[in-house]
Amino acid sequence: MKTLREFIAEHEVRRRAQACYQCGACVGGCPVGRWRGDFNPRRIMEMIMRDELEQLIRSEVIWLCTACFTCFDRCPQKIEVTELITQLKNAAARLGNIPEGELKKAGVIAKDGWAGLPVSRTLKQRAELHLPELDHDGEMAELKKLIGTVSRVGVLRHERSSSDKEEQGTD
Amino acid sequence: MVDALRQPRIELMTLTEIASCTGYVGNFRVTLEKKPRFVEDLCNACRDCIEVCPIKVPSEFDLGLAPRRAIYQPFSQAVPSTFLIDMESCIHCYKCVDVCEKHAINFSQKLEHIEVEVGAIILATGFDIFEAEALSAYGYGRYGNVLTSMDLERLLDPAGPTQGEVIRPSDFGTPGRIAFVQCAGSRDLNHNEYCSGYCCMASLKAAIHIKDKYPESEVAIFYMDIRTPSKGYEEFFRRAREAGVLFIQGKPSELAPTASGDSLIVYTEDRSLGRPLEWTADLVVLATGAVPSSGTEELSSRLLVSLGENGFFREHHPKLRPIDSPTEGVFFAGAACGPKDIPYSVAQGSAAAARASRVLMNDWLVIEPIVARADSALCRHITKKCGICATRCPFGAIQVEPGQAARITPAKCMGCGTCVAECPTGAITQAHFSDMQIFTQIQSYLSERPEDKILAFMCWWCSYPGADNAGVNHLRYAASSRGIRVMCAGRIKRDFVYEAFRRGAGMVLVSGCHSQDCHYLTGQHWAERRMNAMPLRLERMGISPERFRVEWISAAEGRKYARVINEMDDTLKRLGRFRIRQENEAAKAVLDKKLAHVPDIVRASCERAEAL
Predict the structure, then answer these.
(1) Partners of residue B277 in chain A, C-beta under 8 Å
(2) Can you spell out the DSSP letters for B391-460?
(3) Predicted confidence band at A150 (pLDDT cuts at 50, 70, 90)?
(4) The CATH number of A4-94 is which of 2.40.30.40, 3.30.1490.190, 3.40.50.620, 1.10.1060.10?
(5) In total, how many domains does chain B have?
(6) Do B251 and A34 make contact, defined as CB atoms within 8 angstroms?
(7) pLDDT in tens, A73-111
């Protein structure tokens, strides 16, 4: 398995962050940062530039990014902030560093196709807005197919369990 | 401007544009297009016509914040003070004609073409303001209470549309909280990459002015860096802080209207505290930077003066010749070649006048004797469409017209030799750097034990002084190198490299300035393009590509020069004399064929040198 350094080097994460001049435009527009003061894309870029990668990978903060791309849109230096944070998440996942909550969320999506099943209030609102009825089973079949081809959920599970085994000393 | 108008030896031609320009330094022939004013110089600016004119259109000078009439004076200090009529909005009611006591109004004025002969041209075309509508997240034009610094400047002017009162456009009230957003469109790869330089000082000035006039108001400047490098500027920054202006470091990401709709929320990060900040402002001022003035591109093609990457005019050399254009006899003043503040523009104006007078004072122009000459008998352009030389010349010294041989104006030629190297028929030669001279030098350097030699082609301004720097600093490098100095890397033909290998050279180095430092603007670029495919070509002939190297070495990089030569010497030794000789022997037939077009006179010169 690749080390963190190798993964970061392969995706040129540091090089792609280096032109950042720390203006904070990403922070001002970030919808997550507005509610969670500990999520600060500028600081994440700064930490990448300062090579504090282990700390980033271990922190749960990177998982707060919703990948809305507002930061990339606003960045005056065209730094691919969202993309770089995604790479950090990928690196963390490869190293089995996924927060329990994220893993649970992924599991729910894999099982139900949705992050959360619609509650009765949602269904009522949909009816009021004349939206079509939800076809859960039909959508599910398609989603399962999609998940089977693109999702990393299965891989995550596998890597997680294999790294657990390694820790226990059994192969 | 008024002084210029009064000075008898200055002829001021307003509403006039350059239509075309021919000739060269000392002998420019410029055709001017003088647009009609429809008002004769008799006008004494009494304003009677303005009173009767029924048309109101937004005033350009007041940025649409106030109206003007169809007959108008752009602004009260305009030079000349003569009024003019804007024919696009005039409805030809002729009320102004009736009321004018001086009978100055003349609707029959026509566009005039005037031809003048001048010795030098100074371009002082200024700049335009970046159009803030492009910054969609800031909503200029969409949110009424977002202004640009130029809009604010009009409001702060005691003679302006509000008599100097700062008002909110939405309700004409006095704003209590004012936010300045710095670098609006500047230092931004999505808009203008450069720093406009003056916006920091402009915002500081406006902020102090507002604090002075409205002490109760709260003024915040959102900035990335405050740049105050000139004399007295940093002190002015302190004055702003002392006046109570709030400085918040962080580039605002977006502006959004408040729930009531009148005010705006500035969404940014307060970098000093490292947390997001929402600052409510009654009025937001975008510190918009400078962009090239609208006619720059057209003017550049009419005058054959090249533009730089940002669309401003390009200086001959950014450090050493900042006033001169690459076209001899054309100079710059002010923001024509990049954003500038007032003191810098004034200094540059004086410098440009002095540079121009140097041309005008003399009956003769002394040029370097290294100019290029085209042999009309050999020029391909007579029969085929070629014109490569003209596209390579960064100084506009070469004219090509269909069916005629290329014509080089010696007064414009700077002597880089790029056209000489690029000419497909060898019709162009450069005095003192002719093929004959360079081939003979190659022959001389490689007359003995050529396989032990590194033949280095170096440019005049960077890599040769770089080698010199290595010597002056007593750096050790292999004694196997032999240098041939040309004016610019752009002069180095592929044939020189082939000839060197044909003569059995061990290694060949092509060197020149770094691309941004090229003393002939684009010579290095063409050299690099030419040499890019060289290793592959050599490899096909059986010559190891590591025997050929291209390096860009500046005049200060003696250490790099020594390193490159030493590395090349190591390669030379590693490959060994035997292998080099073998490779050269194998490639000889192909090289002979490649160089078959070299004129006999060049070969004869080499033979004469050989005989010596």
Answers:
(1) 28
(2) HH-TT--EE--TTS--EE-TTT-----HHHHH-TT--EEETTS-HHHHHHHHHHHTSS-GGG-EEEEEET
(3) low
(4) 1.10.1060.10
(5) 4
(6) no
(7) 999 999 999 999 999 998 998 888 888 888 888 777 777
